[in-house]
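Bumping my old thread because nobody answered last time. Still need a sequence for this structure:
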């Protein structure tokens, strides 16, 4: 019964949202915001023109490259900062200085450094994902109960054993939280970057549909 509810309730909520969307369009008689049926037709048009899957693939590649690089750099860096107070004292001020800057504000810098192409949005995704991944990994190590380390040292564990058998398992919940948050940020950033820095991807699809005839059905289809 619980499994049935876990499937039925989300479907019911989704159907309610679509029904409210349709009713809102009909009630307001808006000529700007499309109805669910218009968006569905827009998706079919994009698929028929052969642009939907290639644009989606380009966005996935950019997110995957930037996010993957941030994971490779951010997780070890955060663990190192959490493990070593010296490293944390050196790097933390720089991270705290750069972290509040919106990733969108780096778009002109990315274009200057990498030009108009794939590297600019990949760099922006990397930069936006790096900070939450690094800081959550650092907090996972810093907040770990010290009794874990004392017990591990009493059993004669070396540095590598401490890393794989104590540090990583203890900090994994916070690391996973950081990875999840960073992935959501990565998608937001890549769509914004693709509106300016490239000529493909979902962001480019959205801004192109807006500029070329105000096709708001395609705009919402790209967002979906």
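Sorry it took so long. Here it is:
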């Amino acid at each position: 019964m619980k499994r049935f509810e876990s499937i039925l309730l989300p479907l019911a909520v989704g159907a309610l949202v679509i029904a409210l969307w349709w009713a809102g369009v009909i009630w307001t008689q808006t000529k700007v915001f499309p109805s669910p049926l218009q968006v569905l037709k827009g998706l079919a048009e994009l698929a028929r023109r052969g642009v939907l899957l290639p644009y989606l693939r380009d966005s996935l590649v950019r997110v995957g490259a930037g996010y993957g690089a941030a994971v490779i750099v951010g997780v070890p860096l955060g663990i190192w900062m959490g493990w070593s107070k010296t490293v944390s004292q050196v790097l933390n001020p720089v991270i705290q200085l750069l972290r509040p800057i919106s990733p969108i504000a780096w778009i002109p810098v990315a274009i200057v450094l990498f030009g108009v192409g794939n590297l600019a949005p990949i760099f922006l995704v990397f930069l936006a994902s790096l900070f939450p991944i690094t800081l959550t990994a650092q907090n996972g190590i810093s907040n770990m109960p010290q009794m874990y380390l004392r017990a591990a040292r009493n059993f004669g564990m070396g540095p590598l054993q401490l890393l794989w058998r104590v540090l990583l398992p203890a900090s994994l919940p916070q690391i996973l939280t950081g990875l999840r948050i960073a992935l959501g940020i990565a998608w937001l950033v890549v769509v914004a970057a693709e509106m300016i820095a490239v000529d493909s991807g979902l962001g480019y699809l959205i801004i192109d549909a807006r500029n070329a005839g105000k096709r708001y059905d395609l705009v919402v289809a790209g967002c979906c």
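Residues 159-194 form the longest helix (36 residues). Let me know if any region looks off to you.
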